[in-house]
C-alpha cells in the first residue's frame, strides 16, 4: 500500500534542502518501487506569511494521519519581535506536542572524512558516536503557569514552569534503554537534581525503571553542568544519554557541534505506538533555518537527506533504501565533495544542488 | 582597620586548597601589612556531619558581617540520596540567596602556558578571554512553587518554577554592561525567548537598559542552545556574556572547560552595595569538590589562590596584592610546575602543597 509522507520544508534553507531530499524520494519511487504519496505544506514563517499562523490546524491533522513527517527547519528573523504565538518555532512545538512526539533521538556522530572540521582535537573526537535522547513534550517548554504579568509598580514578571511526571520520565527513559541495548549498552541520565526537585524525580524514576527492567544496561547519572563540561573534555565516554527538554536542547546542540558538521546530522522524534503498532514520527535535520545563507544555494542538504534515510528505516521499514542513501552520502564525502559548512581552506565548494545530484548519482551507481 | 574574612573550605578538596590560600594570606599579613582577621567555619557535607545542617544560621550571619567570604567547594557523595534540604549544595545556595549575591562573575581565560591542556584546537582557543555574568539568586533554582507531589494513582510529579522580574534582570545586566566598559565593550545576552516567556522578558529588559544607559556598549542576543554551540565553534567571538541562573550554570562550566584548566579558574559573586557603599561578596574556585581526589594532596590550589586575588582586588581594594599573586601564579606555570589536572604526558606532577609553596616563594622573590 501507499505510504503517506507529509513534507514540511519551513523557512530559510529548509525549502532548498528539502528539494534535494524530494529528488531522492522520486528516485526511490522510480527505481526501487517505493510507493509514496507526498504532500507538502507551509510551516513556520512561510505559513505566517501566507496564513497568519505558524501552523494551521489542518496541517496538524495531516501530520497526524501521515505515516511520517519530513521536516526542514523553522525560524525567520522577520518574526523576532512577534508575540509568542506568532513565532515560526511554534510550528515544531505544536507538532511535537499534538502528535505526542516525546522522544527526540539526536545522534552526534563524527564522519571520519570530516574529522578536521571539528573545533576539537582529533584525539578527543575521532570515532565519536553518541546518541542523545531528549524529552520533547514536557518540561519547562510546556509547563503551566507561564507568561509575563505586569506588577503593581509597572515592572514585569516572566514565569515558566518545569514539570515532569513519573509517566513522562519513564517512557522516554525506556526509549533510551532500548537504544542502549542495540548499541554499547550504556545510558547516562542527566538532570540537575541537586537543585531542582523535577531533576530529583527524574533520577528516581530512571533508577527504578533500570532496576525493574533494564539491569542489563549500565546506568550512570550526571549533573547537567558537569555534563556540559564532560562533553567537551571527553565526549567519547558517552553511549546513550537521556535528559529533559531544556537540558537536551543545549546538550544535544553542543554534542552536534563537537562533530564540526552540524549540516550532516539528522534526527528523529518519536511518539507512542498507536493501536496498529505504528509510531507517530517526525524527521528533521539538527541544524536550524540558517537565514544568513538562505536563498544562496549553498546550504548542505545532507542532514535533510540523512533524515529521510532515518525515516525510511524507522517509519517505512525500508532499511535497504536507508543504507543505500547512507552509503551514497559516505561516497560523495569520500570523493571530496564539500558544501561551504564542511569545506576546508583549499576545498572547492559544492552548491546544494551539486551535493544533491552527487548523492543521486552515487545511489544510481550502486 | 581590620578586614574580616570568613573562610568556608567546605568538602572534598576544599580544605586542602583553602590551606594554601591561607598561607598566602598569612604571608601578606606578615610581609605586606595586610590587616585581616580570619574566621573559619564548616559548610556543606562537613557541616552536615558536625551539625546536621549544610550551613548554620550563625554562619550565614557571620558571612553577612564579613568584608568578604572565601569559599572552597561543597558536594559530597555521602549525601547523594539525602532529602533536598540535607544536601551539601544548600550551603552555597543559601549564602547566595541570603546575602543577595546576584551576580556571579566567571572568567574563562586561557593561560598560554596551558594551551595544550584544552580539548580544543589551539587555533580555536588561543588567547581566549571571556567573562560570563550569571544571575545567581533567581530563576528556576529558587522559584516557587516547587517540590514533588504524589498523584492520586501513586505516581509523582516534580515541579520547579522559573521566575525573573524586571528588577532582577536589570541589576545583573547592569553588572555585565559595566564590566564590558572595562573590557572589549561587548555584551551578549543569552536566553531561550523563543520558547520561554521568562526569556522573552529577559531580552526585553536587557534591550531597554542598553538603550537607556549603555548604548556605548555593543549588545547582541543569542539563544541558549545556539550559544552552547558557538562556545565550541568559536569561543573567541565573545567578550562579556550575561544570562540566567540555569543557563549560566551550564554555559559557564562549558566555557571553563574550553580552557582545559578548570583547576585554574576563580570566580566572584557580588551583591548589591549597602548603605556604606560596600558590596557583599563571595569568592570561590569554579571547580567542584572533586571527591575522587580528595585527601590525596594532589588537587590544584591555584583557582583558590586566584579567588583570593580577586577578593583582594574587589573587596579589600588591594590591587597590588592581587597582582603580586597573579604574577606569582604565572611565574610558577612558566617554570613548568604542574599539578595532575594540568600536567601533560611527560610532566612531573606537583602536589597541592608544592604548588602552594612555589607560589609563596615567587611572591617573596618579587
Ligand atoms: C526551534 C526551537 C523551538 C527548537 C527547540 O528549542 O526545541 C530547536 O532549538 C530544537 O532544538 O529543535
Ligand atoms: C553546587 C551547585 C548548587 C552550584 C550550582 O548549580 O549553582 C554549582 O554547580 C555552581 O555552578 O556553582
UniProtKB/TrEMBL annotation, chains A, B:
Its main location: cytoplasm. Keywords: Amino-acid biosynthesis, Branched-chain amino acid biosynthesis, Cytoplasm, Leucine biosynthesis, Magnesium, Manganese, Metal-binding, NAD, Oxidoreductase. Its EC number is 1.1.1.85. Its cofactor is Mg(2+); Mn(2+). Substrate binds at residues 96, 106, 134, 225. It comes from the Bacteria. It catalyses: (2R,3S)-3-isopropylmalate + NAD(+) = 4-methyl-2-oxopentanoate + CO2 + NADH. Transmembrane segments: none annotated. NAD(+) binds at residues 288-300. The keyword Cytoplasm applies. It is found in: Cytoplasm. Residues 4-359 form the Isopropylmalate dehydrogenase-like domain. Belongs to the isocitrate and isopropylmalate dehydrogenases family. LeuB type 1 subfamily. Catalyzes the oxidation of 3-carboxy-2-hydroxy-4-methylpentanoate (3-isopropylmalate) to 3-carboxy-4-methyl-2-oxopentanoate. The product decarboxylates to 4-methyl-2 oxopentanoate. Homodimer. HAMAP family: LeuB_type1 (MF_01033). This is 3-isopropylmalate dehydrogenase. It comes from Saccharibacter floricola DSM 15669. The lineage of its organism: Bacteria, Pseudomonadati, Pseudomonadota, Alphaproteobacteria, Acetobacterales.
Amino acid at each position: 500500500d501507499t505510504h503517506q509522507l507529509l513534507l514540511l520544508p519551513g523557512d530559510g534553507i529548509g525549502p532548498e534542502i528539502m528539494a534535494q531530499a524530494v529528488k531522492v524520494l522520486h528516485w526511490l519511487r522510480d527505481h526501487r518501487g517505493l510507493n509514496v504519496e507526498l504532500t507538502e505544506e507551509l510551516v513556520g514563517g512561510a505559513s505566517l506569511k501566507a496564513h497568519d499562523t505558524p501552523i494551521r490546524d489542518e496541517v496538524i491533522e495531516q501530520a497526524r494521519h501521515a505515516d511520517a513527517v519530513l521536516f526542514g527547519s523553522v525560524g525567520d528573523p522577520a518574526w523576532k519581535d512577534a508575540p509568542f504565538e506568532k513565532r515560526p518555532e511554534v510550528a515544531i512545538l505544536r507538532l511535537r506536542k499534538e502528535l505526542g512526539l516525546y522522544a527526540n533521538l539526536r545522534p552526534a556522530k563524527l564522519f571520519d572524512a570530516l574529522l578536521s572540521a571539528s573545533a576539537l582535537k582529533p584525539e578527543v573526537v575521532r570515532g565519536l558516536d553518541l546518541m542523545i535522547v531528549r524529552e520533547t513534550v514536557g518540561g519547562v517548554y510546556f509547563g503551566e503557569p507561564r507568561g509575563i504579568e505586569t506588577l503593581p509598580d509597572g515592572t514585569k514578571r516572566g514565569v515558566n514552569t518545569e514539570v515532569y511526571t513519573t509517566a513522562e520520565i519513564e517512557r522516554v527513559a525506556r526509549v533510551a534503554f532500548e537504544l542502549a541495548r542495540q548499541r554499547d549498552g550504556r545510558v547516562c541520565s542527566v538532570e540537575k537534581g541537586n537543585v531542582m526537585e523535577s531533576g530529583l524525580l527524574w533520577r528516581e524514576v530512571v533508577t527504578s525503571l533500570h532496576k525493574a527492567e533494564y539491569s542489563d544496561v549500565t546506568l550512570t547519572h550526571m549533573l547537567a553542568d558537569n555534563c556540559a563540561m564532560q562533553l567537551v573534555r571527553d565526549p567519547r565516554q558517552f553511549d546513550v544519554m537521556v535528559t529533559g527538554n531544556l537540558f537536551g536542547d543545549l546538550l544535544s546542540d553542543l554534542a552536534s557541534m563537537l562533530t564540526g558538521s552540524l549540516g550532516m546530522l539528522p534526527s528523529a522524534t518519536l511518539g507512542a505506538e498507536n493501536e496498529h503498532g505504528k509510531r507517530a514520527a517526525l524527521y528533521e535535520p539538527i541544524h536550524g533555518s540558517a537565514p544568513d545563507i538562505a536563498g544562496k544555494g549553498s546550504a548542505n542538504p545532507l542532514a535533510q537527506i540523512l533524515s529521510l534515510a532515518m525515516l525510511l528505516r524507522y517509519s517505512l521499514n525500508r532499511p535497504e533504501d536507508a543504507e543505500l542513501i547512507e552509503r551514497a552520502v559516505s561516497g560523495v564525502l569520500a570523493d571530496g565533495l564539500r558544501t561551504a559548512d564542511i569545506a576546508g581552506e583549499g576545498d572547492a565548494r559544492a552548491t546544494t544542488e551539486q551535493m544533491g545530484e552527487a548523492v543521486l548519482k552515487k545511489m544510481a551507481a550502486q
